[in-house]
């Protein structure tokens, strides 16, 4: 039976108290490292920011003389992810006289995967970490292709070879890891239960916001009356969710989603109309640069309502943002105003130039390509009205 929201909140609060006790200062650095890694990987680190920061500061300041590759690589990744400097020289102890990693680690996939993920936090010029990536990848790919690894490690290796841990979408990775963590014999049931409750509670918040922004988008579309606009509001909200998923970042999440949605309208307008009416698109750009009601007269009549919506939406942003942060709205205005895409070649223009065909032929061919791509990737049926604006 599905538990009530109130019960889940109360239970989550109790579990958070239990987890906080696990951060009790201790000389066992390894235990604290694994605790932080599990919390971050389960996506509940936003609940323990202060505790994690304190723990990592202690880990960074404490001498660490481990000769275990997995432990050294884990410490390296945890600290670099949070901005603590760790020299790549710590991996020299695992190399031979020739400067290459010792082959003895070829039989330790867990350590290789940890090294592989950690090394992806390299900065420009750290060739030794790029070499570490190649070393670990070669052996991991071999193990994966010969199916010598068992779940859940086999799944993690396959996933991270495709996309290293530091570059993954945090919430997607969390969903994978949650099931894998449950299979580990030594997993902490308190952390797992809290992670499940947290994602359920956040999902309720996100669904409510998605409903709200869908109604906003419906009104925007009706008011603009533009036929060439793609209905991408779900995609736009997903982008904002990927960047700001925490409950306390609701305002930032909604503002970002609306900004992306408005930018997509601008993108569709330039892509569809710029090749036939570049002057009209430039007039829209001039109006945006002016950013004032008086410049609305510069905008072609069929785009005037869109321009008015831009102005109205940013006024709403300014009303919602705390007074001492209003400069952020001004910065966003400057960034949208600087996107002079009307002077850039769109897909249609490029196709016309390359194949020396008419605009109608270019649009038809590009639509055919798009439809073929959607079919091959088993996407939902493509409506021709949604295809045309992509060009």
UniProtKB/TrEMBL annotation:
Protein name: Terpene synthase N-terminal domain-containing protein
Domain Terpene synthase metal-binding: 223-327
Pfam families in alphabetical order: Terpene_synth, Terpene_synth_C
Terpene synthase N-terminal domain: residues covered: 3-161
Domain of life: Eukaryota
Organism: Oryza nivara
Keywords: Metal-binding
Gene3D superfamilies, alphabetized: Farnesyl Diphosphate Synthase, Terpene synthase, N-terminal domain
GO biological process: terpenoid biosynthetic process
Molecular-function annotations in GO: magnesium ion binding; terpene synthase activity
InterPro entries: Isoprenoid_synthase_dom_sf, Terpene_synth_N, Terpene_synth_N_sf, Terpene_synthase-like, Terpene_synthase_metal-bd, Terpenoid_cyclase/PrenylTrfase
């Amino acid at each position: 039976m599905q538990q009530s929201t109130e019960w889940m909140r109360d239970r989550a609060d109790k579990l958070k108290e239990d987890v906080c006790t696990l951060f009790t200062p201790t000389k066992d650095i390894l235990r604290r490292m694994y605790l932080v890694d599990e919390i971050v990987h389960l996506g509940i680190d936003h609940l323990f920011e202060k505790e994690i920061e304190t723990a990592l500061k202690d880990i960074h300041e404490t001498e660490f003389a481990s000769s275990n590759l997995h432990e050294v690589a884990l410490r390296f990744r945890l600290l670099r992810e949070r901005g603590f400097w760790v020299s790549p020289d710590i991996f020299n102890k695992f190399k031979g006289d020739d400067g290459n990693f010792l082959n003895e680690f070829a039989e330790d996939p867990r350590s290789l995967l940890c090294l592989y993920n950690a090394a992806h936090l390299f900065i420009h010029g750290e060739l030794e970490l790029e070499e570490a990536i190649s070393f670990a990848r070669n052996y991991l790919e071999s193990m994966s292709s010969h199916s010598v690894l068992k779940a859940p490690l086999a799944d993690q290796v396959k996933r991270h070879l495709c996309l290293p841990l530091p570059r993954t979408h945090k919430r997607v990775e969390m969903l994978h890891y949650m099931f894998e963590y449950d299979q580990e014999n030594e997993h902490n049931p308190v952390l797992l239960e809290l992670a499940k409750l947290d994602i359920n509670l956040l999902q309720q918040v996100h669904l409510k916001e998605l409903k709200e922004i869908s109604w906003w988008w419906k009104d925007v579309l009706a008011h603009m009356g533009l036929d060439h606009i793609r209905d991408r509001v779900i995609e736009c909200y997903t982008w904002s969710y990927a960047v700001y998923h925490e409950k306390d970042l609701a305002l930032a999440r909604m503002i970002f989603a609306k900004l992306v949605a408005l930018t997509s309208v601008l993108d569709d307008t330039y892509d569809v109309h710029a090749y036939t009416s570049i002057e009209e698109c430039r007039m829209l750009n001039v109006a945006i640069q002016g950013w004032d009601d008086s410049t609305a007269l510069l905008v072609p009549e069929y785009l005037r309502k869109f321009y008015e919506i831009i102005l109205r939406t940013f006024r709403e942003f300014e009303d919602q943002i705390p007074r001492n942060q209003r400069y952020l709205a001004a910065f966003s205005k400057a960034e949208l105003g600087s996107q002079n895409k009307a002077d850039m070649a769109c897909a249609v223009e490029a196709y016309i130039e390359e194949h020396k065909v008419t605009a109608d032929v270019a649009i038809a061919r590009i639509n055919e390509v798009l439809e073929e791509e959607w079919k091959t990737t088993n996407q939902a049926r493509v409506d021709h009205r949604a295809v045309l604006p992509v060009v």
